[in-house]
Design brief:
Blueprint (H helix, E strand, L loop, with lengths): L4 E5 L2 E5 L2 H15 L4 E4 L4 E4 L8 E6 L4 E4 L4 E4 L3 H13 L4
Antiparallel strand pairs: 1-2, 3-4, 4-5, 5-6, 6-7
Protein name: Phage gp6-like head-tail connector protein
Length: about 100
């Protein structure tokens, strides 16, 4: 598992965030912008996406060599190059509108 490295250089703090985490943070920002309740887990590079009604939350990972966001046991996926589109697909998925 990748880790986030924080370094202090001449009074400034710099962090080196793994590419996977950057992709998940980008998706997180789009999801929360849509009003979706999501949590970023830096210790386990994944997003925990809560459903708006009763139901188990959804874990979203970066998979397929870093090319796709994946969820539902990797049965569902969306290209990481389209974080905004992935957020819309996930919002529909957790609301039960798309299966």
């Amino acid at each position: 598992m990748d880790t986030i490295i924080v370094r202090e250089t001449a009074g400034a703090i710099h962090s080196e965030v793994p590419d996977e985490s950057v992709k998940l943070l980008r998706l997180y920002e789009h999801l929360t912008g849509l009003g979706v309740d999501a949590e970023f887990r830096a210790t386990m590079p994944a997003l925990l996406v809560h459903r708006p009604d009763v139901g188990l939350p959804l874990w979203v990972f970066v998979g397929y060599g870093g090319a796709y966001y994946s969820w539902q046991s990797a049965e569902k996926r969306h290209p990481v190059s389209d974080a905004a589109g992935a957020a819309l697909v996930l919002a529909d998925y957790i609301s039960g509108r798309v299966f």
